[in-house]
Amino acid sequence: MKVLEEYLNYIEKNKKLSKNTVASYNRDLKKYVEYLNERNINLSDVVENDIISYLIELEKEDISVASISRMISSIKSYHDYLFFNKILDTDPSKNIKKPKVKRVDVEILTEDEVDKLLKFEDLSTPKRIRDKAIFEILYGTGIKVTELIDMNLEDVDLDIDYIYCGSGKNQRVIPLCETTEFYLLKYINESRNELTYPEEKALFVNAQGQRFTRQGLWKLIKKYAKEANVNKNINPTVLRNSFAIHLLNGGANVAVVNKILGNSNLSSLQLYLKHIDKNLRKEIKEKHPREHEIN
């Protein structure tokens, strides 16, 4: 397993993959290696048919196409690393193709639903102030849960109204709107010191005064989603999607929104674009100077 640990360290440090992605690769590859060990197949002896047989086993377990696609990515990346570093003589995964994953529509909240979710009438305790700030940051910046968890106090610069998102490979600075800045400042000034210790670096801390875990933050979001009585499956991704689409509907530039989200290319926003208010399309149809040039 030493080689696996070296590989995981490589993709985290050199490839700049997020901790969550590295953890997913770790789980996928441990399961793959376990399968090989159960059949007494050494990693150096693996051939393409062994990998195909493993994938067939996964399909029998009724694992989703998206999960199998990710597992294939993990296996191909691992074997590529082993071959490139001359640990193995061949790459048996090079011809394995990923199944096409059917893209589903993105889920979003309406602006009224967001208002219900973010309406914290009781801000009388440090935890309630913290929770309000968390929701304002998630919806106000569109950052991912892992990015929020990894954020440190020093990543906030309220003098210039920015936060620094430094986890993963999409490092960037994100501007804060007035409301987001107000509640973040309130948390830092009035709440954070009541919840943690001076030496703690994490921006947001849990009940033990330590950095949130991904699972802990999800539970928190589910709790407030239930309280808001919004009949949708609210999760961090839904808040991120809502942030993007509400900005686009307000007339924001697609490339700017994409940059704020930390996406590496414009194709990542294709699923968002069909949610743009039809009025924007109407504006282009009616008012673009080139619209009526063709006779």
From TrEMBL:
GO molecular function terms attached to this record: DNA binding
Provide the Core-binding (CB) domain boundaries.
Answer: 1-83
**A Pfam family recorded for this sequence:** Phage_int_SAM_1
BP GO annotations: DNA integration; DNA recombination
**SUPFAM superfamilies (UniProt xref):** DNA breaking-rejoining enzymes
Q: Which PROSITE patterns match?
A: CB, TYR_RECOMBINASE
Per UniProt, residues of the Tyr recombinase domain are 104-286
**InterPro entries, per this entry?**
CB (IPR044068), DNA_brk_join_enz (IPR011010), Integrase-like_cat_sf (IPR013762), Integrase_catalytic (IPR002104), Integrase_recombinase_N (IPR010998), Integrase_SAM-like_N (IPR004107), Tyrosine_recombinase_XerCD (IPR050090)
Q: Which UniProt keywords apply?
A: DNA integration, DNA recombination, DNA-binding
The entry's family comment says: Belongs to the 'phage' integrase family.
Say what the protein does.
Site-specific tyrosine recombinase, which acts by catalyzing the cutting and rejoining of the recombining DNA molecules.
Q: What is this protein called?
A: Tyrosine recombinase XerD
Q: Which lineage?
A: Bacteria, Bacillati, Bacillota, Clostridia, Peptostreptococcales
Q: Which gene encodes it?
A: xerD_1
